Structure formats: structure tokens, C-alpha cells
Amino acid sequence: MATEYIAPVEEFVFLLDEVIGPELEQADSDLSGDDVRQILDEAARFFQEVWAPLDTVGDEQGCVFRDGAVTTPAGFRQAYAAFLDAGWNSVAAPAEFGGAGLSELIGQAVREFASSSCNSLGLYSGLTNGAHATIRRNGAPWMLEHVVPFMVAGKWTGTMCLTEPHCGTDLRLMTTRARPEEDGTYRLTGTKIFISGGDHDLADNIIHLVLAKLPDENGAYSNDLSSVSLFLVPKFKVDPISGALGAANGVQVGGVEHKMGLKGNATCTLNFEGSIGYRLGRSDTGTCTSSSGMRGMFEMMNSARLGTGLQALASAQRAYTHAANYARERLAGRAGNPADRSGAPADPIIVHPDVRRLLIKQASFIEAGRALGLLVRGWLDEAGSGERARRGAVGRFLTPVIKAFFSDRAFESSNDAMQLMGGHGYIRENGVEQLVRDGRIFQLYEGANGVQALDLVLRKLGADNGVAFFSFLSMVREAGQNIGPDSSLLPHADALMAALQILEECGRWFLDDSRDAYDAGASSYDFLTMIGIFSCGYMWLLMALRAEARLRSSPQDAFSQRKLHLAQYWFDRELPMIASLKVRVQTGHACLMGLPAELF
Amino acid sequence: MATEYIAPVEEFVFLLDEVIGPELEQADSDLSGDDVRQILDEAARFFQEVWAPLDTVGDEQGCVFRDGAVTTPAGFRQAYAAFLDAGWNSVAAPAEFGGAGLSELIGQAVREFASSSCNSLGLYSGLTNGAHATIRRNGAPWMLEHVVPFMVAGKWTGTMCLTEPHCGTDLRLMTTRARPEEDGTYRLTGTKIFISGGDHDLADNIIHLVLAKLPDENGAYSNDLSSVSLFLVPKFKVDPISGALGAANGVQVGGVEHKMGLKGNATCTLNFEGSIGYRLGRSDTGTCTSSSGMRGMFEMMNSARLGTGLQALASAQRAYTHAANYARERLAGRAGNPADRSGAPADPIIVHPDVRRLLIKQASFIEAGRALGLLVRGWLDEAGSGERARRGAVGRFLTPVIKAFFSDRAFESSNDAMQLMGGHGYIRENGVEQLVRDGRIFQLYEGANGVQALDLVLRKLGADNGVAFFSFLSMVREAGQNIGPDSSLLPHADALMAALQILEECGRWFLDDSRDAYDAGASSYDFLTMIGIFSCGYMWLLMALRAEARLRSSPQDAFSQRKLHLAQYWFDRELPMIASLKVRVQTGHACLMGLPAELF
């Protein structure tokens, strides 16, 4: 039985209208708060009613591989078709390609609802949107005409093909080859694994974006990353002139993986057997370059990383709703304070402080994470220079944090939801254990979280000598300094400023020239966690400020009272962890690197 | 495919011979280190060869409920029979009942091997041992004659029946009734759920220990805990005079649960339909009292809690071995320091600091936990007065910590093993995801971990005004003060003493009369975690001391060098967390209790 799902429409309206919108220069100024609410209410109804009940079916049936093709669980085809019909696949896609052209912030809200209601089904669509964005930026004109509109409409889906059996993170080792043909196309040969949505029965065609190696001038393939390019490889051939669908393109499905969870999404092995591929990567003059293709892939990866963090958060949201309902209904024990007791033999377990701790821990992460996800999305989408460029850089800096910290905390969060249910949480029919299993993948795919931490420290912090990092700290400092002297939030702001000092010190520790080659790796993970906790603190300060303002005019506003409570939790119980994490970071690699490999 | 399992014999020999043995007044003085090694080598071979391959089978097939009875997965019957034949079920049971009469410390080593190699199969036996210990202490003479020997031999198994559909922790609410008969027996009626090993095909009989309510003098059943007694209820009747097995005793199996993991162990619903029960609880004069039965149940629970923590640790041990092997074999990236690079295009991932962090984090918890588990077991078994009684009290104080902290950290540990494997960790065939799913139960059953934290603070800390807690701190202080002035471990000892101060302050905070009714609950969980981290630090100090001594005579001793590295990790990266956790603890319930239930 699937857990109930209630989409958090009010949360998004609050964030878009009052918290994140005002932080961005160009929010959806053409949409009023009422417009937003109306769109999201409609989306909420759709995903609650049509998608949410399928989540369990997806887990129980999984995807079936037979006779070379994948069948999705019962009901997925119809629910996906209904999703396309209602326009939810293309809500944030540009109007010129058939999308609704709404902002990415609205798109992100809709994607959260999709992920919460049925993460495995939502992933087919999420990857498609990432793929057509990459093609839009890097594809040839015929692709924009004959491929992208089908993907925007969701009639065709997309994948990202990077991993091979022996190589994931280390793309240098890849062995999939792209042999140039005289007509400017390529023939791809090789095996890719872990391809989400690699095959299925939802769409008429699948557009694979495939990393493969080009031969050097002597026809040899090297271990050099510069030989890797990105190719568009359709499942069924597409005529570049007419756009007509043709024969199968030699992409054989080798099988689907048996996984811990997210079973409704087919994770495929794909064998490319001389498949025709088209190289992606467009310079301003319209010619392809290898580096622009790789850049396109990295853009897609970054977008997928943001998406992964938010998928994780969406999963935690559903678990939280279930746990909160359970805690209000399940009776056990008596309230510690006799004045809080009902007359019944036992009280609902929500009277117990440790149960509340588990719930508030979940909610305070989820709500701050949602805010941060929207803010980063907004920053990344604000093209431009000066202040906008600076914010874009901060958005890129925070992308690995959103991927890793969100997926770590979301997993912990769903586990907390399960924990609160005691033994009942372990029973499949009660639903939450599926969310735990499904949610475990988000720490692993799109670059395992340890890789995100390295990306944060080596590339995002190190590459520009910390400019993006220090810009971020400046933003937060400014927000802290803007708290009025009569605000009840001054202690929170002070705590955040103290944490900021600690982070600054740690950032400088990493940037210090004297650091050993291993220090960054040894301490990157804890640093990422610190940034995650701190960023959520920043969000809680912004949200609490709005809540305080609302309460000045409406002292009974329960929504705002709730926000102040959750903010207090974060400042009381999460932010203080930064002090101990700093000690960890600054121990460096001493305790890690001395042990010979055979002694582990 | 099951993960490989290598039983850590050398670890146990080191602990029993050199670390924990010397801390106890009566270790296995009749066994030399060589004897211990021989026994454990034999056990290791058995569990590695016979049980370890069944772990996957248990997960894939699960237990099948058909025609009112449960069938265990293929191979379980044979492997269980071989286990009995080899004598492993009764290794630590008293010789007078047919056991081998070895110490509980040896028994604990064997149980770890059993749990690591096949946790679901091991649980049938673990519960049996807990049950016959309870019967030995609280049963009538005929039970000692006709029941206990069969359980010691493993021909009959045992269960513990507490939970009902609407009540787990809150036993007051239980509705299972025991109606007294004229012949001194009782008729039990009611439904129990989540009964591990509640039915199966491994043994000739199952002895259920059942909590049920006695009527008051008017025949009425109350919500008063004092009306609850403990009953022995066999699946098949046992003639108290002859011991002959009789007809079925009206214990109907209602079904088996579909669970996240540990699927090879049947978790049953049992309906008692007028089943004959025998009340447990023996005073010195041989008569039964309700309170002694409840005490017996609590003893069984405490033993089961220790066992649960150790089951969790056993699961983490297996995941760790797999992860360490994977890290030595999987190639990706290059060592940060060029001097550490192999000539190959990529190095084994164990060269990367963040991979080592994940491994050392696992090993340093597991090895300290194993030591603490043995020490606590030893303390609990040292009957006596004075110093022995004081250590017994410390053992009882630490029991909820072993249950909750071990299961929390073991779950994290197996997840770290999975994390290190990237996407491969999520694939069922690679084995670790099963250990994660199996291991999740240990945080939930035998009292969810939040309940353990309450037990720690309210009963174990609070009941005697902290005597056991302060005794524990004194022990650790003494160990710290015994470090010689020329020891390289002085910094570790200093760090441990600083942590001790913090713990002492937190303990006094809980004991402070002015504390609100909700503060204990609000801060109990973080306090338990602090004690867990601190206790493992204590173990690392003891182990590092021995390692240091060994290295003085054998400077190349790799085993000891390894121990010093792991100790350094714990003091560098785990112990410092105590400082931030203290801040959390002392915020009390302010951020938790203000929010109305409907706003969650």
C-alpha cells in the first residue's frame, strides 16, 4: 500500500512569492501568487491522484526484460501518457519547442511533486528534460527541428550514457569507441551500464546521449580524456532531413539490473553495436568541437546533480507526511507533563519529545532544502554578468552540496520516518521502507557523494581560489547584518555569523598552499556537510524573517509560527555541529593515509 | 551472490587474551590463548563454509507461509542441523543442561560468526538461548528437566512474545489474557505480532515466552502493568510429568510479515486460542510471583538488547570485509601523490583518502564495538558484590547504548560499505545492499532506539541518581591516568579525559532537579550517542595500550600498527563530535515541544 502523498503547495507559494522570488532579479514576474497557486494546485491533484498510487506497483512489479525489450510496471504507460496530456512534462520547456515556457522554479515544483508521487516514473521524464536541454545548447539544427520537439512533448525520452562496467567516475578508462564515417556521422561500439530509462515501453523513441572516444590521427584510442566526445544516438534511426523514424539503430538492451529500489525505473545495460551517432558540440560558428561536447555533458551532469538532490528531498517529503500522520494516530505511553495528557489510556506518540525530534529533524531539513534548491536553480538560470554572474558561480559552487548533502540528509530523513514507526516501519505494506530503499540511490548515482565532495573542494572551491565560496559567505553575511535590532532572530543571525567564521577558516585551510595532496580528499566530505548545514541555516534565517514579518500583521498565523519553530530547531541542534566538524576537517589526512592497503 | 565472509578470529584472540580478559576477574582461566584460537578457528571454518553461502538464499526465498505453517528457505534445515551437530548452539550453555559450558565470551564470538554468516538463521538460535536462560532462572523444576535440555540442544527453539498489533513499547495496553485454571495452568487468548522465529520447520517444538494479563479478583483485566505476567506456552504440548510431546496447543500462525530484509527469519503473527500456558517466576521458595516473571522478561529483553547490538555489528563486519576487498581491486583515478601511483592507467581506489575514510570509519567502530560488547558481557556475568556488583551495574547502564549506538553505527557502517562501491553497491547481486536492508531491523526491534535512549536516561542514569554512570566515568578516568608519561598515547588519553568532563557535565544536567519533564526525552538520544562515542574511545585507549606494548617488543607487528591507526582515527574524527553533541543536549526541549501536533 502506497503511503499517502500530499503535495506541499502552500510551501512553494510561500517560497516563490515571499522568500526566493524576492532574492532573484527575474522571478516569474508575469505570474501572480494566485496564478502560481492555481497551477500548483492542479499539479498536486494530478500527481496525488494519478501517480502516487503507482509507486508501490512500480516497486512490486519492477521492470521486466524479455525478448530484448523492457516492459514497465502495470499502469506506468497510462500514467505517463496522462502526464504528457496534462502538459506537465514540458511546463518549463521553451515555447519555441512546444513547452509551456514557465520558469524553471515552477518546473522544479512540478518535478518535486512527480518525484514524491512516483520517483521511478518521474525519472524517465527528468532525464529527458536534461537531455533535450543539452541538445538545445549543443545540437545541430536538424536535431532542434526533428528531435527536441518530440522530447519536449515527451513522445521520445532521453538518457545519459556514461558508465561502463569497469569505469564510472574515471572517464579516461572508457572503451566505447566512435569511428568517424565519411558522411560526418559516427559508428559507436561499446557497452554502457546503469543507464536509467535505457529502455522501456513509454515512448516511441529513446535519444541516448553517449560518451565515446574518438580515434587519434593514427586510428588509435588513448586513455586521454580529451579523446572523449558526446554523441546523440537514437534507439530508432531518425532521418536528419525529413525527421522520419527509421529502423533500429543497433542499440541492444543487455538486461535490466536487479536493484535495492527504484525498481520501476529500468536500469539497463546497453550494447552499442555499430550504432549511428551524431557528435554534439556546437561552437558559435556552428561546427562541432570535442570540448564543447564534453562541456555539454558536464552541463547535463550538473543539472542532473541538482535534480538528484531534489529527487531525494521529494522522497523524504513523502516519508515525512506519512510519519507525521502516524505520530498523530498511534497511541503509546503518556505525555511527560500530566497537563498534556488526554483522558485515554495512552496518548498519541507525538506527545513524546524524541518522536517530535525525529519529525522536526525531517521537516527542518526538507523545508530548508526546498528553499535552497529553488534559490540555486534561480541563480543558475539568471544569465548575465556582474552580480548575476557572481550568483551563478555561487549556484555552481552549491550544486555538489545539493546533490550530496540533500541525498545524505534525505536518506537519514526517510530512515527517521521509519524509525518513528518502530517495527511497523520495517514491514513492506506500510510503505516507508520502500522510500528508504528507493532513496538510497540518490547518494550513489550521478557521481557518488564522495566524488561530489571532491568536486566541491578541488574544482568549485579551489579552481578560482575560492571566489565563489567567499561570494557565498558575503551574501550570507549581508543577510545576517540586515536583521533589525529589535528582531527576535538576532540570536539566530549571531549563530550563523559564528558558523560563517568557522567555514571561512576551513575554506582558507583548504586553499592554503602548504596543504598536502591528500588533505583535500581527506577532509572534503566533512566540509561539504558543513556547507550543507550552513546553507540550510541561511535559508532558515530568510524564512524566519518572512515568518516574523507575517506574524507582525497576523499574530495567529500558524504557518509562520511553524516556520519559527523549525528555524529554532535548526539553530539549536544542527548548526552547532559545524564546530565539531571543523575539528575533523583540520585533522587532515594523518589518520587515513598511513595504513598500508593490505592492512584494511 | 553472497559477499565473502572471513571470521575475525585474530581479533577475538587479541581481545580475549590481551585486552578484555585482563579487565575481568574471572575470564576463561581454564582456556589458554591457543585453546581459544583452536575453538574459534573451527567455528570460523564452519560458519564461513556452511552458513555464509545461505545468506543470499534466505533473502531471495524468504520464509513461506502455507497451510498454517512456515517453511524456511532451501538449505536452512540442513545448515541448522549441522550447526547443532557441531555443538555451536550450546557452546556457552551450562554443562548440566547439556551445553559445553564455555564462557559467555566465547559464546559471544561464536554468535558473532553465526550472525555475520547468516543473520536470519542465527536469530532462531539466538532467541532460543535467551529463552532457555530465562526459563532456567524462572522456570519450574519440570521445565528444567523436560524443556531446557531440548532448547540447549537446539532440538526445540524459543521465542519472545510481547508485541500486539496496537501495542509495542507500551505494555500496559496489551490485551492477551491468561485465564487461570484449577490445575494451576492458564489458558492464553490473544494475538501477538512480530514474533521472530514464531514458526518454522527447523525444530520439533517451539517454546513461546508470552506476556499476558491476569484477571483481578473480580475477573476483570486492567491497564495496569502489574497484571502482566510471563508464561511458557509450547507449540506442542509437553507432559510435565513424562516430558512427552503431545498435541498442538492452539497456537495458530496468522501469517508471516513481508519485510525490508532479514527475510530468512520468519516474523510471525501468532494467535493464541486457549493455549495452555505455565506461569514463569520463581521465588526462592519455588512459588510463582508476577513480578518475578516480569523481571525474567526484562532480563531476557536486556540479553536480547545486547544480542541485537552485536547482531548489528556482525552485519557491519561482513559489509566491511567486502568493501575493503572491493577498494583494493577496483581501479579508478590516480593517487594524489605521484609517488604513490602504480604504473597502470588507474590505481585501486584504496589510494583515495575519502575511500580510506569510509573504510577506517567502519573498522574503527566495529573493532571498538566488539571490544565493548565483550567487556559488558563479562561485567554482566561476573556475579558478586563490591567491585563486581559495581561493574555489573555499569554493564547494565551500557546495555541500551550497545543496542542503540551499535545498531545506528552498524547501519551507517554497512551504508558506508555500499557507498564506497558507487552504483555497484545498489545492485542486488553485489550483496552489500542486503546487509543494509537486513541491518535496518536492529535499530527497530527489541525496543526502538529512541526507547533505549529513554531507558538510558530515565532508568539507567536516573534511577540510582547516576551511580552506575559515575562509576563508569571513574573506570575510564583511572584508565586514562594509568598512561605512562612516555607513552605516545598521552594525547589520546587527554582527549578522552576532556570528553569525560563534558559527559559528566551532561549527566549532571539530566540529574538536575530543575529539569522539566520533557528535557530527558528531548536530549536522551544525543546523550546516548555521546556515551557510545566515548565508550568506543575508552576501548581504543585500552587496545592502543596493548598495541603499543606489543610494538615495543615487535616493532614490525602489523596487527598492532593497524590498531594504532584506527585508534588515531577515532580520537581525531569521532571523539570531537562530543563537544557539539553537548550543545545539542543542553538546548533541552525548547525547540521541540512548542509546536501544536496538527502543525507537524
Automatic annotation (TrEMBL), chains A, B:
Gene3D superfamilies assigned to the protein according to its UniProt record, in alphabetical order: Acyl-CoA dehydrogenase/oxidase, N-terminal domain (1.10.540.10), Butyryl-CoA Dehydrogenase, subunit A, domain 2 (2.40.110.10), Butyryl-CoA Dehydrogenase, subunit A, domain 3 (1.20.140.10)
Keywords from the named record: FAD, Flavoprotein, Oxidoreductase
Cofactor list: FAD
Domain named Acyl-CoA oxidase/dehydrogenase middle: residues: 160-273
Domain Acyl-CoA dehydrogenase/oxidase N-terminal residues, every copy: 34-155
Xref: PANTHER family: ACYL-COA DEHYDROGENASE, BROAD-SPECIFICITY LINEAR ACYL-COA DEHYDROGENASE FADE5
Family listed: Belongs to the acyl-CoA dehydrogenase family.
Protein name: Putative acyl-CoA dehydrogenase
Organism of provenance: Advenella mimigardefordensis (strain DSM 17166 / LMG 22922 / DPN7)
